[in-house]
Amino acid sequence: MSDKLNTKDILALKARAHHLSPVVMIGQHGLTESVVKETDNALSAHELIKVRILGDERDERVAIAEALCEAVDAQLVQHIGKLLVLWRKRPDK
Question: Partners of 49 in the beta sheet?
Fold first, then answer.
């Protein structure tokens, strides 16, 4: 992604994301095609979203976060426990 976030941008996005509820849930089947599609749709609509990963393995959650960001061309703003905050600039902005 060409629009790399700097520290100031990340802090602003974290603040914006604080009140958001997760709009995508990744369950026991992991990163499926439907999860990727739903995440892509949510980012297109909202630009900044939260994703909940329902799994207890931290390494697995990190791997899912990286793969999901790659699949939808988004940037990981924050990863706390089972919650991810993803951002992707809207094409119209």
Answer: 86
Q: Which whole-number Å values give the CA distances from 70 to 8, 15, 16, 20, 65, in the listed order?
A: 23, 23, 22, 22, 9
R_g of the chain, CA atoms, integer Å? 12
- Of 38, 35, 34, 46, which Cα lies nearest the Cα of 87? 46
Predicted confidence (pLDDT) per residue in 21-53, tens digit: 999 999 999 999 999 999 999 999 999 999 999
pLDDT value at position 93?
57
- Give the tokens for residue 27: 């369950």
Selection from 14, 13, 37 nearest residue 26 by Cα: 37
Q: Which amino acid is at 78?
A: Q
Q: Positive or negative, the Cα torsion across 72, 47, 17, 24?
A: negative
Structure tokens at 43: 């980012």
